[in-house]
Every structure is written in structure tokens, then in C-alpha cells.
Amino acid sequence: MSISASRAAAFDILLRVERENSYASELLHSTRVDELSTADRALTTELVMGVLRWRSLLDDYIARYSTQKISKLDAEVLVALRLAAYQVTHLQRIPARAAVHESVELVKRARKRSAAPFVNAVLRKLVQAADQPGGAIHICDAPSTPAQLSSALAHPDWLVKRWVKELGFDNATRVCFHDQEIPVTSIRLRDASAEAQLATQGIELAPGVLLNSARRVICGDVTKTSVYDEGRIAIQDEASQLVALLVGEGPLMLDCCAAPGGKTSVIAERNPHATIIAAELHSHRACLLRKHVLAPNVRVVAADAQSLPFGMCFDRVLADVPCSGTGTLARNPEIKWQLKPEDITHLQSRQLAILRSAMCHVEAGGRLVYSTCSLEREENEEVVETALAEDTRFHLVDCKNELQSLKNAGELALKDVEALTRGPYLRTIPGLFPVDGFFAAILQKRQD
């Protein structure tokens, strides 16, 4: 039995994530994966994302039947074990013998032939345990402590403890459950006829949960449609779209951390007559930004948001800063294994530098939206509060008021505006709504 294309691709992607801290979502959109059949591409995605979502739990299973410590195993061996363990414990439609055999073959393919008998022995024990009546493999389905939550739902203990302290146990539980599910694909309609045409191409849509202009994909792959190829729709989480709506309107606007361009596009579509500068630090990402943002009124500039090179001020500024991404773990599960507590402190310093720089480019009476896709207070409220304490020319605008204005204008679908806020801030909690976790604050500069 040869190794299937899907398992070989999944193994190679997981190995790169393990060794290089690569992003799985980017690797899953590589040319190699695109060239797979539809069925193989779907299985590759299932295997990669499943292993990353459940990694610590899979490691627990492996450790039970391994004669060696997990930490001592070669990366190739550990990845092959995880790949088979996920199939055995989560994908009952796949024959266990196929999962075991191909993982053994993958170890040989990776030039770790001497480890093949070990991998075979560990996996056969795991299969036997999984086949026992009642299951020797058991997941706590009603965790009641942070430790149980961390173990049962495969999240780092330190991260769960933070969320329980900051969000409360119930919301922390919602977040963890949400992270383990395949996330909803949401789209933004760029023209009125796109929805009807998608239906003719086999795409089933449902209304957005937060926004009337958004749609959730219930069935079908929108990336395989002509509507998508023509740029008439954009894939974008609803919470991300909402952050862009908070920026509002103005004749001169700045998006100072613009790539990949989803929020920039929303701003441009709502402000077709404005001049919009989209800044991005890395030149290769700035090139991608030029391709993704089609609006003619957007000028892309390669620039460091910590020291913006502009000699002018803007009516509206968006600072959607680089962050830990803990609000996006359903889409990017590798983050929870790569992130360390000290990383949040380092990110905070960079975020504060970007916010300070952005504040220097806000026109009197203008507004700045600071946002992250993080759930961590250090990256959110603490950054905003520090910046406001340093610069008394700015004050907070209550997000509730802006959300109510969007509701009155027919743009916000959600009835309970307060469910999206915490104090004066926008806060979307994954699991409370089927969206990513975003934070936003609106800062307004006083008139001279």
C-alpha cells in the first residue's frame, strides 16, 4: 500500500509547522495542495487542522503507549504518530489499519526507518484501546476546572487560566469549544447580483449573524466559483468586517497595518471618493496587498507603522496591529502551541509604539480605531489606556454608540448591541458568536 497524496501532504505541512513555526493556513493554500483532487485536498485540510487543534490530547494518547518520552522523539516520528492518532480517535470513517500503515510508511519516507517498528507498536496499542467497549480513550465532556478544560479541549494550561481570570469560566469554555470546531466561512458581497449567482453555482448561504451585508457559507466551496474569481465577493470573518465599519467615513484615511487588505477593502468600498493610504511594513506583503485591494482610491505604501513617514494627518485612521491572534485559534490552531507568555509582553511594546505613531497622524477632530484579533488584556485595554494617559488630546468614544448607529442604519443585524461590548470597547467572544475574537477601541482627537 503506497502513501496517499493527502497524508503525504499533511505530513509535510505538519512537519514544517513543527520545525519552522509556519502557518498551516498558508501552506494549505500552496500550489502543491491546490493540485490535489478535491477529495484529497479536503482530507489534507482535515488532517492538518485536526492534528493542530487536538495536539496536546493526541500527545497524551501517544504517551500512554510509548516507551520513550514525547520530548525525546524526532519531529518526523512525532508528526507521524499524531497523524495516525488523530485518524484513529477522531475520524472513524477511515480504517485504522490504513492510518497506522501509512504513518509507518511516512516514517520510512522521512528516512527514520529504524523508528518504524516503534511507531507501529505504539499505534497498534492505541487502536486496541480505541476499540475497547466504552473506550479506553475518554474525553471529559463537561469540564468544570481550568485543568480539565485545558486537557479535554487541548489548550495550553497557561492560556486557559488567563481566559478564566479575564473572561470568566463560562466564556473561557465557550472559547475553547469554539476553537476545536471548523470555523464558519463568512463572505462579504461586493455586488448585489453575487448572491443569486452563487446559488446557481451550488453555494448555499445563510444571513450573517452580526452584519446584514455578510453571508455565512452553509454548503459549497466559494473559492471554486466564478463569482469569487471575479472579485465580486470576499472571504472575511464578520467580526473583522465590523471592525472596519467602525472606522467610519472621511476624505483622507489611513490603514497603517493594512495587509492582507480585508479591512482596507471595506473602508474603500464605503468611502469611494476618499483618498486612502494603506501602509504595510514588509514589501512582499505590500505587493500582495496591491493585488487583493482592487479599489482605485487606495494607495499602497511600504512603511513601518512604528515610524510612519507621512507629513500629514488623516481624518480616520485604522491601527489593526500585529498581535498574538488568540481570537483566531479555530482558524490558526498552531498559534496556541507556538505562543509563549513572554510573547504577549513583547507584542504589547510593539503595539503601543504603533498606536503612539498612529495618534501622531490623526487630524484634530478625527478618529482612530485601534484593533486586534487577540483576547488578551495586555494587548487590548492596557495598550489603549497607556496611550490615552500619555496623550490627553485624545478621548475614548463609546463603541456602543457607534454600534447603535450602525444598527439604526440597517447594517448591524444583531439586536443586542451590548453583547458586543465590554465597557467602551468592542469585544467579540468566539463561541458566544460564531466569529473570531476581536477587540476595538475608538479614540477621538479633540479639536484644537
List the helices and strands and how they pair.
Blueprint: H1 5-20, H2 24-27, H3 31-34, H4 38-53, H5 55-65, H6 75-90, H7 96-109, H8 116-131, H9 146-152, H10 157-167, H11 169-179, E1 186-189, H12 194-200, E2 204-207, E3 214-219, H13 226-229, E4 233-235, H14 238-246, E5 252-255, H15 262-270, E6 275-280, H16 283-292, E7 298-302, E8 314-320, H17 335-338, H18 341-359, E9 362-372, H19 381-390, E10 394-397, H20 399-408, E11 421-422, E12 425-427, E13 439-445
Parallel strand pairs: 5-6, 5-8, 6-7, 8-9
Antiparallel strand pairs: 1-3, 1-4, 2-3, 9-13, 10-13, 11-12, 12-13
Helix pairs in contact: 1-4, 1-6, 4-6, 5-6, 6-7, 6-8, 7-8, 9-10, 10-11, 14-15, 18-19
What would you note in describing this structure?
The chain is α/β, with parallel strands linked by helices. It folds into 4 domains: 5-131, NusB-like (N-utilizing Substance Protein B Homolog, Chain A, Orthogonal Bundle), CATH 1.10.940.10; 146-179, no CATH class; 186-235, Alpha-Beta Plaits; 238-445, Vaccinia Virus protein VP39 (Rossmann fold, 3-Layer(aba) Sandwich), CATH 3.40.50. It is 46% helix and 15% strand. It has 20 helices and 13 strands. It has helices at residues 5-20, 24-27, 31-34, 38-53, 55-65, 75-90, 96-109, 116-131, 146-152, 157-167, 169-179, 194-200, 226-229, 238-246, 262-270, 283-292, 335-338, 341-359, 381-390, 399-408, and strands at 186-189, 204-207, 214-219, 233-235, 252-255, 275-280, 298-302, 314-320, 362-372, 394-397, 421-422, 425-427, 439-445. Strands 5, 6, 7, 8, 9, 10, 11, 12 and 13 form a 9-stranded mixed beta sheet that branches. Helix 15 (262-270) links the parallel strand 5 (252-255) and strand 6. Helix 9 crosses helix 10. It is globular, with a radius of gyration of 23 Å.
